[in-house]
Amino acid sequence: MQPRPFGFQTDDALFQFERLLNVCQVRFLLFILLAHRIELSFYFGQLFLSRSEFEPLLLKALLVLLEQ
After folding, report:
1. Count of domains forming the chain
2. What is the distance between the alpha carbons of residues 16 and 7, in angstroms, rounded to a whole number?
3. Which residue blocks in 1-68 are alpha helix, DSSP H?
4. How far is CA 12 from the centre of its chain?
5. Residue 46 lies in domain
6. 67 Cα distance to chain centroid
7. Backbone angles phi, psi at 45, to 5 degrees
8. Quick one: which of 2, 8, 12, 19 has the most CB atoms within 10 Å?
9. Cβ distance 57 to 49 under 8 Å?
C-alpha cells in the first residue's frame, strides 16, 4: 500500500471523503454505462421496456445517485 500524500494516512476524515468520492465516481460511471446500453438498445430496437416505462426508471436511478 502506497503512502498517501498530505497526511491522508492519519487524517481519517480526509480518507473517508476520498473514499466517498471514489464510490460516487464508480456509481456515476455505472449510470453512464447503463444509459449508453439503453441508448444502444433503442438504436438496435432490442429494448425490453417501452420508452415511457424506461424514462422514469432512468430518472429514478439518477436521483438515487445524487442522493448518495
Report:
1. 1
2. 13
3. 12-44, 51-67
4. 24
5. 23-67
6. 11
7. 70, 30
8. 8
9. yes
CA 49 to chain CA mean position, Å: 21
Compute the distance between CA of residue 43 and CA of residue 23 in angstroms, rounded to an integer.
30
Q: Which residue has the cell 430518472?
A: 59
Cβ(47)–Cβ(41) under 8 Å? yes
Residue 55 lies in a domain: yes
SS3 (DSSP) at 5: helix
Residue 57 belongs to a domain = yes
Q: What is the pTM of this model?
A: 0.37
43 occurs within a structural domain: yes
Per-residue pLDDT tens for 18-65?
A: 777 777 777 777 777 777 776 666 655 555 556 666 677 777 777 777
| CA–CA separation, 50 and 42 (whole Å) | 9
Residue 62 lies in a domain: yes
